[in-house]
Predict the 3D structure of the following.
Amino acid sequence: MRYLISRLLWLPVVLWAVASLTFLVLRLTPGDPMGQVANLIVDQAQIDRIRAEWGLDQPLWQQYLAFLGNLVTGSMGVSMASGMPVSALLAQKMPPTIELALFSMLIATVIGVTAGVLSATTRRRSVDFAARGLAVLGLSIPWFWIAIMLIFIFAVQLRWFPVGGRIGVGVDYTTITNFIFLDQLLTGNWAGLASALHHIALPALAIGLTTSGFVMRMTRSSMLEVLHREYVRSARSRGLPEPRVLWGHALRNAMLPVITLLGLQFGALLGGAVITELVFSWPGMGRMLLDGILRRDYAVVQGTVIFVAFFYVTANLAVDIFYHFLDPRLRES
Amino acid sequence: MATVRLSRTDAGHIPAVTRQAQRWKTLVDRHLAATVGGLFLLFVLLCSVAAPLFSPYDPIQIDIPQRLQAPSWPHLFGTDEFGRDLLTRVLYGGRPVLLTSFLSVLAAAVAGTAIGTLAGYLGGQVDNLLMRLIDVMLSFPAVLLAILIVAALGTGVPNAIVAVTFSLVPTFARLARALALSLTLEQFVVASHAIGATGPQIIWRHLLPNLLPPIIVQATAMLAIAVAFASALSFLGLGVEPPTPDWGLMVSEGQRLIYDALWVPFFPGLAITLTVLAVNFLGDGLRDRLDPTLRNR
Amino acid sequence: MSTQRDHEKYLKAVQEALLTRRRFLQGTAGFAGLMAMAQLTAGCAAPAAAPAAVPAAGEAATPQNGGRLVFAAEAIGESLEPGLWNGFGIINIVDNIAGYLTRPNSNGNWTDPAEGFLAESWTLSEDGKTYTFSIRPGMSFHDGTPVDANAVVRSLTRQTNPDDPSYVEGLYMHTAFTTGRKNITAADEMTVVVELEAPDATYLYRLFHPSAVIISTKALDELQQGIATNLVSAGPFKLEKFTPGAEAQLVAFEQYYLGRPHLDEIVIRGYPDEGAMLSAIEAGEVNFAPYPPSSAIPRLQQDASKKVVAGEPVVDLFLACCMLNGPTDNKDVRKAINYAVNRENLIEAVLYGLGEEPATLVGPTELGFDPSGKEISRQDLAKAQEHIAASGLATPIPLTFTYESNRFWPQMAELIKGDLEAVGFAVTLDAQDAGSYWGKIFGGQAQLSMNQRSLWIPDPDDKVALLQSGGSGAQFETGIVTALPEYSAKMDELLAAGKSEQDPEKRVAIYQEIQAMILEELPYIMLAYYTKPTVMATNVEGLLPGAAATERIFLEKVWLS
């Protein structure tokens, strides 16, 4: 319990450190948001006015305090490139990213767990060999490469899937939550739902195939370990049918580390699918963050990083606590 | 060599007739992939180090009339937009990626193990502080942390190494900590404590030797990630500068030529895939050999 | 396949309706500006004629209404706020929603005199400083409210008025219509009076700069900063749905004063990745792509389902020499660089032939273009060697070359590096991301850098204004303000004179003097005039040449056959 409280107390400290580090690194990075303006022909008076309005003319520590002050009051600031509040931008960009992450996890789980269980339990070496080989292949193809190739083959040559975007051109749909699937369900728009599914398939596959390699290996090794455990042996000796032993007893226990892996992977995907988002014209957070960095849009980068960090730290914390209570030896230390 | 001895001892009490088959099978199962992977990796290393010996062409010299030639005998992989032999560029193009990934994995392994071991051994507030530091590093999305570092420091191999290292350190630190933590609870460490061994002695004599095998296994796994990561950075234009050949950069520049000259983005991408594949196979082999939890499955 | 020819056919019809002067102009480039200018002043002095509602191409097929254009834009920004620079994608959306006070000539010829849009006519005072605009009666905004003088004044002042509820903090704009403006008032419900500090020959053009959108007063009051996602104006299309950072859906505005546009709907989709855009073109997911990668053009021209329209060479690609730093502060070094670069090679290898060899900043379609500059902006290795020797620097001369690591810049840099090293430079390539690039330029830290300038408004001033002492080009990119104060002062004088001069002949003389000055000191070294190609499905008709040439892609006359 004390451990839990201490970890919870650390949470804001970690977030503060992330925020401060981001602030600092951004300010140390050459270039500033005025680069955007310098590109256009503006006079010095205008540049001074804009600098003043953004507070860029103040000493760094004052900017830092103002930033922390805003953060404490829950304001993530305004994008210097678009004049939009960062919170509004996040509300726009987070749903596509979360959807993509969820669908790719789904693909990774279905493929990875099936292949993992098959390869751990099969008596045929060739199946095991093939499954492991494919898993390694899956996690060896770089994301950008697989994305480009999927588009080349399935979107352009075969035209089975669209090249990019979240939903088809000309599909009528209403935006409520920005979660495009949820919105279609809420409005009962089945055509929209189908189109959205059609659009997410390739990008989700591009990420999912890679992730499935990791999931497969984790499932396999975890299954192998569990299969030697007492309760599996006893289930077998009690004469339970093999499928029930496998899918019921063994897999349920073997899934714990797999779920952990998926959880962490999900956290990583929130900010990490930059290239996939770029190649599939997917309007998500990764791309916003990349653009933000390239344009030195301080508020956008800070806001997004803090937001992603919050998810990540929380997920980590959950995993840690989970392990903590699982392994009594650790609890004492 | 050691691997062979291991399978022989394992096979000690098996009847002689099946022993031969068993040994062969074990070799295939456990070591063929690793051997092939290792050999291929060596081959890739050799190719990029000794690229000038393999190719009569210059990887940088522009020859516009020769541009975008389809693969043929004189140009097995075809030529690129500037008429350079693509095979030559693929040979040279491994250099920055391999350099970046090997060095950053090495640096990250050293730094991560140091942090993790200290945290795990000392425990308490030091542990808490170091791990929260790691949390901070982890909570930056890896690719974006790298982009930020490259934006701050500029492009080029040394900065790419820093960027990739930063994103790999947390994994090593967490692993080392977890291992150190469980090792400190082991009988022999507790016993050493009891007979008055000092902290550094315990770390040096007991923790590190036991940490090393899993760290090496992890390093191989991370090497695969580092290669992919380094090429992703150059794909985004944050690695080396043209005209230096580089796989990721070649894919990214060739991407818009995919419908005109598929070979331009295809071969460098294939090179990355095969290299990562080789590293992964090697890593698997090492894990089977070194990771005690998997050895006697 | 059918490339420019369709357009020429279309143009021909228009030309015959208007006069056959265009062909004459094309033949005599030196005279072109002069003649255009004569027309411009005619347009200024007298109330402008109502825009000839061009019966599009009398002899060609009759335009049909209906259909959807799917437009592959570059990245789409987050905000439609016209006062912000949010990339070309946003400009493409805004231009088709917007009602401006004036508009480019409806014959589609980009450099011809501006016509009235929301302004039906105007008069210019004797001293050339006061414009009186009469607002076109009976027009309405997309929300149904009438267009009046108050809306115009509000729209053209709110961007610099922090008290306006729609004002965005930290807003910057491309100031096209506020610079040199002393006062703007609504004289009555339908009359707007603009007083300028000095006569300005470019002013009517600047009123259709993308930042000068006239927005419904009701929308400004009710939506305030919300116009950033819901821009309500009076143009041919109205905004149906805007997904920031992704796409916009525009639909025909039935009450448009010239009658509804032909297309029912335009979907403008952002493709931040060149490869992804090309894939969308290949897969037929878009039927209009004005920013295709050059490398694909030769093949797309052979594609029976598509046509490629090459615009006019209006985009300047250039090197900038920063004189705040060595060795580019050395005039001989700049000249050596200039004579070292093989432009033909750049145009052929990187632009795939989509460009012309350059003179200097003022392009061939602009007023006062001086083709004699081509004699200087070309490769001449002997001269390059001479200047290297004359520079007094030991060879190889170390030189850092800074550029953005996107689009075709890296390939350009690679070729230029080769050229420079051949004459005695040791070039360090310095590829930067967009933010760092501008940071470096803005900090005056670069030596040689590389950039482009397109034509926002069809006046030579738009490009040469780079050299104006108040701007970042003169201060940081080239540093002429500090390094060559007298030169810079003289340049300022000429720029001001060029803008305020009403006599076209004198204007031509001034811009030619400016060009000679640029070629003398070479703060900017031209690489090429880039001809932006547009790829479209074969059934897309009616694109105006001005729209094909620049980033100002007005689609009201486009239709699908």
User: Anything to note?
Assistant: Chain B touches chain C at residues 62, 64, 67, 81-82, 151, 154-155, 237-238, 241-243, 253, 255-260 (CB under 8 Å). The mean pLDDT of chain B is 81. The longest helix of chain B spans residues 86-122.
